[in-house]
Amino acid sequence: MYKSRVFHLLFFVAVLQTVLALREGECEVCVKTVDKFAATLSDDVKKDPKLIEAEFKKFCKGTRNKENRFCYYLGGLEESATGILGELSKPLSWSMPSDKICEKLRKKDAQICDLRFDKQIDLNNVDLKKLKVRDLRKILNDWDEVCDGCIEKTDFIKRIEELKPKYMGRSDL
């Protein structure tokens, strides 16, 4: 009787762990950002949570878009309202995998796993006329360009076509 209860308890814990674990594609911004950040750390910094926190704040200064929002949620930016950097730095100092760190962060703040990277637009194979103005603006924003005086969709397309030769060699779009 006792063995049966222990078995059921262990089975329940295993099922619960499987349900709470991250699925493929969940927390993509968190996992990729934590991996990217961890790759920048030297071995001596990886052992000290306080140094990790200081390095994360430096790392966050150069982030944009979703990574910047992730930094905001953790408290890595000066304008962050809250800070849960300890939930990142301590597990990193223990060499915990990034997906497990993100599971712990999700328990503290679910918004962290709601972040998704924007879909990438392949300018070599896409018809700009079929894109929405929002997507055209995103292309220009990713290039750090503006379209002064652009009112209609054709204005945005014309500006992108003008800038295409300058940016098509870059791999970040």
Automatic annotation (TrEMBL):
It is found in: Secreted. GO terms for cellular component: endoplasmic reticulum; extracellular space. The keyword Manganese does not apply. Residues 26-121 form the ARMET N-terminal domain. The keyword Disulfide bond applies. It holds the Pfam family ARMET_C. Residues 125-167 form the ARMET C-terminal domain. Residues 1-21 form the signal peptide. One of its GO terms (biological process) is dopaminergic neuron differentiation. Belongs to the ARMET family. Required during the maturation of the embryonic nervous system for maintenance of neuronal and cuticular connectivity. Essential for maintenance of dopaminergic neurons and dopamine levels. This is Mesencephalic astrocyte-derived neurotrophic factor homolog.
